[in-house]
Amino acid sequence: PTLLAIESSCDDTSAAVIRGGKVLANIVATQEVHKQYGGVVPELASRAHQQNIIPVVTQALLTAKITKKELDAVAFTRGPGLLGALLVGCSFAKAFALGLQIPLIEVNHMQAHILAHFIDEPKPAFPFLCLTVSGGHTQIVLVKDYLNMQILGQTTDDAVGEAFDKSAKLVGLDYPGGPLLDQLAATGNPDRFTFPIVSMPGYDYSFSGIKTAVLYFLRDNKTQNPNFIAENLPDICASIQNALIQTLLKKLKLAAKETGIREIAIAGGVSANSGLRRAMQEGATRYNWNVYIPDFQYCTDNAAMIAMVAHYKFLQGDFANQYVSPDPRYKV
Ligand code: ATP
Ligand code: FE
After folding, report:
1. pTM for the whole thing?
2. In whole numbers, what is the pLDDT of the chain averaged over residues?
3. C-alpha 268 – ligand 2 centre gap (Å)
4. Phi and psi based region of residue 49 (left: phi greater than 0; alpha: psi -120 to 50; beta: remaining)
5. Residue 197: what pLDDT?
6. pLDDT score for 39
7. Strands 22-30 and 12-19
8. I need a labelling partner for 298 at 20 to 30 A (CA). Which of 26, 156, 178, 292 fits?
């Protein structure tokens, strides 16, 4: 099938066209308006989606060299995400489907992050474990089939992406600080400072403690030396990043051991983190894992991954009707 997919769950407006599971276009407009506020402002996100959606869809169709008449269905992100942001993509897709008299497909954003692994080779074999790490989620998912997934463990408070962004903010970096902290960590010593690795029962996570630990650590050191951050920035970043990665890896290793699964994938925005990517490669050598890491462009939010889920839903004839509405807390 030839499909158009739309992603508008947070602060990226994206449209993709795929044909037979091959991505022909994947256009992403990242909203710059939130930077000055140090975080995503939901109302501004919805407005920016409204402004971006038509140009982004037009560009995707142009790039793919596909006309509207050639489309077999239109897909959109139903959730999880910000209600007002999701509404834009959902309403647009409904109108588009109605106007062209083609089926509508609703997609779960977290499933889409995982199916980003089926865009390019190499593809994981079922069943595999996926560590989904993003701005709003931290999950270990047992992926049994394209559309059959079970969450084994997840964060009980903050997501790891949030922990990256909040820690980055505390050391004075711009929003979103995750990628900046990653860059600075590259030249730092990860063993210089110690931050807590919180252990939760089973495969669950907790990341709210680390930002408090970072806050007190910086406060205590700044009273002794006002220039503490400036003089030690790479080491601080590398040490924070190390604690976050070790926390992630601990439960992933446990899940791999207890399920006996060696097909291991990572997905979501934080899978762009170079330290985590390196740690996964080490896991491959040490534990004999087959590790799958998505291409950078498919780690953070994009419509190509939404289109991938839509492709498999189309094959199953799993369509939505015009009464479908966004679900901000949509579960996998
Ligand atoms: P969700 O998918 O849970 O709804 P989201 O869509 O907002 O949340 P993504 O776009 O998947 O999240 O990921 C964004 C997050 O990834 C941000 O927290 C960002 O800081 C983080 N991130 C991106 N690149 C890196 C990096 N190199 N190192 C660490 N964190 C990163
Ligand atoms: Fe996301």
Report:
1. 0.95
2. 97
3. 6
4. alpha
5. 86
6. 87
7. antiparallel
8. 156
| Amino acid 332: pLDDT | 87
290 CA distance to ligand 2 centroid (A)? 24
Q: Report how far residue 306's alpha carbon sits from residue 302's, in angstroms, rounded to the nearest whole number.
A: 7
Ligand 1: residues with CB < 6 A are: 9-10, 80-81, 109, 113, 134-137, 161, 164-165, 176, 178-179, 182, 268-270, 272-273, 300-301
Q: Which ligand is nearest to the CA of 177?
A: 1
Residue spans of the chain under pLDDT 70: none
